[in-house]
Every structure is written in C-alpha cells, then in structure tokens.
C-alpha cells in the first residue's frame, strides 16, 4: 500500500472512496454548490474540492465511471487523464456529454474514478535500425479482428 496525501480545498469536498473491497478505482465526487449544466455534445471542467501529493514514480489516472457512460453517455474526455506526482492543484475532471440530451451534475455526484498506477522512467537510445518482429509495421486492424 502506498501513502497518498490528500487535502480538502473546500469544506464541502467529499474524498475519493472505494465502493468495494477489490475495486481498482476510487470514486471521485463533484464539489459544486450549485448544479452544473453539461449541455449536449459539450464539456465542463468539474471541481472535486481536493488536491493530492503522491510519491514519485506514481500517477493517478482519471477514468470514466461505466454506469455514468452506460446510463447517460457522460464520459471523461481525456481518458485516462493523468495527475502527476508533482501537481498540487485542485483535481478537476473534464466531463463530456456524448448524448443528445443535457445533463445536470449535482453536488457530490460520483463523476469519475481514479486509479493509482506505478510508472517507470525510460532512457531512450536513438538507433538507425530497430530489431524486426513478426508484426513489424502492421498497424490498426492488421489482424482483421
């Protein structure tokens, strides 16, 4: 288990929460005093009311909630969004309304989920030629699946 420092920036903020013991993600709640209208085919930046400090070589990934997408076609536009270890500002969620109907984000609505992930630093080495592979340059749809 890693230690994540979290600070409420708004007394009404609701901290992220796991909904089941084996959930990978923590549900993230909106922190808005008034309803936010998310118009059809548009986006809004939704406040959460908290900031975090995570250890280096970790990130927090912001992902959509499957129920919100399935029931209302509301997703996280830059999914997965990344919160870097050196960011200390408020965590905000870019929600996008893919549907033809307006949607209202109410106070303390579960709007996204966050997953904590380890990442690795890379040391890139420029070369003139890469080793061959079976796939080689086969790109999008190359397997016909």
What does it look like?
- The structure is a single chain.
- The strands form four sheets. This protein has a four-stranded antiparallel sheet, with no helix packed on it. Strands 4-9-7 form a three-stranded antiparallel sheet.
- It has one helix at 66-72; strands spanning 5-8, 26-29, 36-38, 43-47, 50-53, 58-63, 74-76, 81-83, 92-97, 103-105, 110-118.
- It is mainly beta and 145 residues long.
- The mean pLDDT is 95.
- It has one domain (5-118): Deoxyuridine 5'-Triphosphate Nucleotidohydrolase, Chain A (Distorted Sandwich).
- The longest helix is centred in the middle third of the chain and has 7 residues, at 66-72.
- It is built from one helix and eleven strands.
- Helices cover 5% and strands 34% of the residues.
- The chain is globular and about 55 Å long.
